[in-house]
Every structure is written in structure tokens, then in C-alpha cells.
Amino acid sequence: MVQEYALAGSPEEAVEMVAADPEAIVMGGGTTLMPRATLGELNGRRVIGLARAGLDYVHRNGITTLGAMTPLRDLTDIEGMPILADAARSIGSWPLRSTATVGGNLLATRPYGDLVPALLALDAEIAVAGADGERTVPLADALESGGAVAPGEILREVRVPAIEGSTSYHRCARRAANAPAVVAVAARVRRDGDTVTEARIAIGAVGTRAIRATAAEDALNGTAGDPAAIDEAVGRALAAVEPADDSVASAWYRARMTELFARRAVEGALE
Amino acid sequence: MRARAIGFELNGEPVAVLAKPLASLQSVLREQLSATGTKAGCRQGGCGSCTVHVDGEPTLSCLVPVEHVEDRAVTTVEGLGTAEDPSPLQAAFHEGFATQCGFCSPGMIAAASALLERNPDPTSEEIGDALAGNVCRCTGIAPIIAAVEKAAAQMRAGAKA
């Protein structure tokens, strides 16, 4: 049972509070923690909240900087970044997106986290702050190392470099709203003439975490994005994931949808 | 446990409550402020029946700790109109029997009113998108969309929101 909810008043205060009490639960918008708190199942003495910490901002200046507490609502119409807008629109429902945040979506466990493939396809970096200062890590590396944010640290912001190439985001779910993803695939393709020079394919909701399917990307690099290259990329995308059985979908269905939605995403980015 | 005094604006009036840590706005509205128009359905953000406006944004009150609305303006279905003087949306829901059992109506009307403030002439598809997070177990979706369209037309013709 939670004994205290303490709201930080600034980014600096948030870092200080969390660093001083690494056992505290850190809460963003609250969409995943509040149901547990309401049921009396949130086991922690103290919760530190970021809702008033001044981390709700979107800065556009070549790179796009998203404060960790930016509500997903603010991304659904973000100009010039359809892959982020499509990913944000696919999450939850309109009123949920007033509360769910960029940082919360990034740190949530399966079946949540549908923004992550889009951010991976955009080569996003995350800024993590703790007692020893701030560090910037490529999102892909942070996910691979298993713990994007250590106890005593907070996720401060997400930085997206200037985007080059065309993008596509396709998400499979059983209903239009409030339905967890069976699979979500984000793709980005940069071309020189007809030749693909830089491909990104990122897959979420299939295994324990979102991944970049680098072998599938390599199947497109240097090609003209022809049907044979797409087939090879789709096959490698499926080989890169370990589909899991859960209440959302069977592993078998996830695998079939991974093939289909990887194809849609790749073809969409090549269009 | 450290209970805290929280002040906010509810339907235009200042209110203050003494709340336990992480009490949901929904539980505070219903159990401490007797604003029972806002319903408690799934209490996990999945049904939309607790939708209210926080500073004008449609928000699921079951997911919001009351601490987050301190010094903010909350509007519930009670703040949109009364039985004697219903809003065009409330009247259209009533007249078109878009209510059926009525449990989802406060959330539907809160979400729909936020939609009409932003988009006075939505297509039925846009209405469906805006209300996709609000679940109706009577499956009365068609009359609900018709009621929103009717209210939108009346408001465009000059009826007050």
C-alpha cells in the first residue's frame, strides 16, 4: 500500500528525489500504475510523480526533442513525422492519450510500448538523468542492454534526429481502439535514385521487447526495393523475432501477422 | 499514510478534498464529491465510462491521481447541462434513445462534447474514432452516432453548447 505520493516540481528536483530514494516507484502519467493503485496492488512505500516536473514539451530544431512527460495526444498530429503520428494514434483511445506519456510508453512492458518501433526506425536517442549527471544512449542500445533506466535514474527526454527517407508504421490489433498490439512494425527507407541506401525495420509487441531487425534491413540495402528483396527482408524479419503466446494472440498467429505487417510496413516505406 | 488537501475547480466551482495518496479522480468525484454522473466501469482505462474534461481535454478519470488535477478545471457530465436545461448533446441522447441503459452515456457525452468543441461538423467516421474508447454494452452505437450528428447540427445552427 502506497504511503506517500510526492510530486517533483522541476526536472532537477525529480532527479534529486529519485536519486535519493532508488526504491521509490517513479510514476509518469499513471496509466499503467493507477489501475494497480486502485486495486491496492501497487506495492511500494513511496511513489515519486513526474506530472509537475516540467518534462512535458516538444522542441523542434532540426532534431525533435520529446520530454518524457509529453502526452501521446501531442504526437498524433505532429507535423512532418507521420510515423510518430500513426504510432501515437494507434495507442489506446483519445482520452487515454491525454494521460499516457512518451516516457511511459517507452518504459512499459509488453503488450504496451507501440511507440518504440517508430522511435527505433527513427534512430532515436534517450537522455537518462541520475545523481552522476545525464547520459545519452541510442534507444536500440538501451533496449538491448535490458534496462534503459536504472533504479535512481529517470528518463528525461527522447531525441529524434532529422529524418531522412520515407516511413511507414503498421500495427495489427483485434479492435480499432484500446486493443493491445499483436505486432507493430515500423520501417524507414532512404534512397539514392532507385537504390536503397539506408533501411530501418523495427518490430514491437512480438517478443519480450521491441527490436531492430538488422538482417532484414540488410536485405534491402543496396537493392532497388524489388519484390525479391522485399520477400527476403520479410523472411528475415520473421526470423529475427521470437513470437510469444499470450492472451492477445498465439505465437503462431503472431508469426503470420509479423510476416504480413512487416511486408505492409516495408512496402509502405518503399512507395 | 500522508493524506493531502487538494483543491481544484469542479464544474466552475472551487472544491477541496482530503485525499489518500493516488486516490483516483474518479473515486474522489463519486465518493467524496457526490458527482456520481461520472461512472466507475472497468477502473483500468478500458471502457471510457469515467471520461471527464481536465482543462478541456477528454481524460479517463480512473487513471488520474487526484493530485494531478490540483489547481486545474474538471468538467463532468453534470457541468455540461442539467435535467431542466440539458445541453444539445444531452437532449439529443435523450430524445434519440441513445442512452439505452445509460451507463456509458456520461462518458460518451463528455468525449463527444470535447469532439464538437474541436470539430463542429464531424463525419460519422470521425465521431466513431473519437468515441472508440467508450464502450456501450447495449451495442447502441448507431443511435449514439446519430445523436452526436443531431446535436452537432443544432449547435452549428446556434444552440448553446
Total of domains of chain B: 2
Q: Mind telling me the C-alpha Rg of chain B?
A: 15 Å
Average predicted confidence as pLDDT of chain B: 95
Instruction: Tell me roughly what share of residues is in helical segments of chain A.
Output: 25-40%
**What's the CATH superfamily of the largest domain in chain B, by name?**
Beta-grasp domain
H/E element order of chain B: EEHEEEHHHHH
In total, the number of domains of chain A comes to 3
Please characterize this protein's 3D structure.
The complex is a heterodimer of chains A (271) and B (161). Chain A has 271 residues and is α+β, with helices and mostly antiparallel strands. Chain A has 3 domains: 4-49, Uridine Diphospho-n-acetylenolpyruvylglucosamine Reductase, domain 2; 58-160, Uridine Diphospho-n-acetylenolpyruvylglucosamine Reductase, domain 3, CATH 3.30.465; 166-270, Enolase-like, domain 1, CATH 3.30.390. Chain A is built from 10 helices and 12 strands. In chain A, the strands form 3 sheets. Chain A has a 5-stranded antiparallel β-sheet with strand order 4-5-8-6-7. In chain A, a hairpin with a 1-residue loop joins β4 (58-61) and β5. The termini of chain A are far apart. Chain B has 2 domains: 4-79, Beta-grasp domain (Ubiquitin-like (UB roll)); 81-156, [2Fe-2S]-binding domain (DNA polymerase, domain 1, Orthogonal Bundle). In chain B, 35% of the residues lie in helices and 16% in strands. Chain B contains 6 helices and 5 strands. Chain B has helices at 25-32, 77-80, 88-95, 105-118, 124-130, 141-156, and strands at residues 4-10, 13-19, 51-54, 57-60, 73-75. In chain B, strands 2-1-5-3-4 form a 5-stranded mixed β-sheet, with helices on both faces. In chain B, β3 and β4 form a beta hairpin. Chain B starts with a strand and ends in a 5-residue tail after the last helix. Chain A binds chain B through residues 1-5, 7, 29-31, 34-35, 37-39, 42, 47, 49, 51-52, 73, 92-96, 98-99, 176-178, and chain B through 1-2, 4, 21-22, 24, 27, 43-46, 48, 51, 54, 57-60, 62-65, 67-68, 111, 129-130, 132-135.
